[in-house]
């Protein structure tokens, strides 16, 4: 069985402040984690994946297997970061995604 | 830029009626997914196709839901009969077989 937990349904930060969206997972296989984002009136889209270890729109996420976490971080939040963020676990055998419940980030001007 | 298309965007129906949703994936994407997203929750996989074959329908309520992808291109998801609890956003996504999935705009279903 697998589990993806995003403990915060809502998160508000001021513009310019650091932001961290939490994601914890439980999976018996080798985990591949992703962050998907949905901006207002737009489609759900991939933000970043842990294996690429890249920074997208200033966001980074590090897979911590010891803590089974994949938190999304950005040092200075921008208003355009306001969106719904979903952490997702790739089930390698089935080749599909298992999503968390999401966190709505609001960046206050 | 190629996108996943879905129709209709909105559907209102009465309980016990039949509804159908259509999805056209990005050309060349062999894998197609249908998700259900209830308000306040993340997308939940209903069915996954590889070409025309179902590879995962473990979460599909088969007594009332059916899905097909006859020619391995576009797909239809049907609910018959619809129940009040089926009110949700139904998302379609496609991929070339990698974990990155491309999502459509969704169909918002309201069952009265």
In brief, what are we looking at here?
The complex is a heterodimer of chains A (109) and B (112). Chain A is an all-beta fold.
Write up this protein:
The complex is a heterodimer of chains A (109) and B (112). By secondary structure, chain A is an all-beta fold. Helix content of chain A is 0%, strand content 46%. Chain A is built from no helices and 11 strands. In chain A, strands 2, 5, 6, 9, 10 and 11 form a 6-stranded mixed β-sheet that branches. Chain A is globular. The termini of chain A are far apart. The model of chain A has no long low-confidence stretch (mean pLDDT 93). In chain B, 0% of the residues lie in helices and 49% in strands. In chain B, strands 2, 4, 5, 6, 9, 10 and 11 form a 7-stranded mixed β-sheet that branches. In chain B, a hairpin with a 6-residue loop joins β9 and β10. Chain B is globular. Chain B is an all-beta fold. Chains A and B meet through β6, β9 and β10 of A and β5 and β10 of B.
Return residue spans of chain A where pLDDT drops below 50 for at least 5 consecutive residues. Answer: none
Number of helices of chain B: 0
Listing every helix as H and every strand as E from the N terminus to the C terminus, the arrangement of chain A reads EEEEEEEEEEE
Strand % of chain A is over 45%
**Rg of chain A to the nearest angstrom?**
13 Å
* Global mean pLDDT of chain B: 95
Largest interface: A-B, 21 and 24 residues
Mean of pLDDT of chain A: 93
- How would you sum up the global shape of chain B? globular
* Shape call of chain A: globular
The counted number of beta strands of chain B is 11
Strand element count of chain A: 11
Helix content of chain A: under 10%
Compute the separation of the termini of chain A in Å. 41 Å
Question: What multimeric state do the chains show?
Answer: heterodimer
Structural class of chain B: mainly beta
> What does the largest sheet of chain B look like?
7 strands, mixed
Query: Largest sheet of chain A, described in full?
Result: 6 strands, mixed
- Rounded to the nearest angstrom, the distance between the terminal CA atoms of chain B is 37 Å
The string of secondary-structure elements of chain B, in order, is EEEEEEEEEEE
| Helix content, binned percent of chain B | under 10%
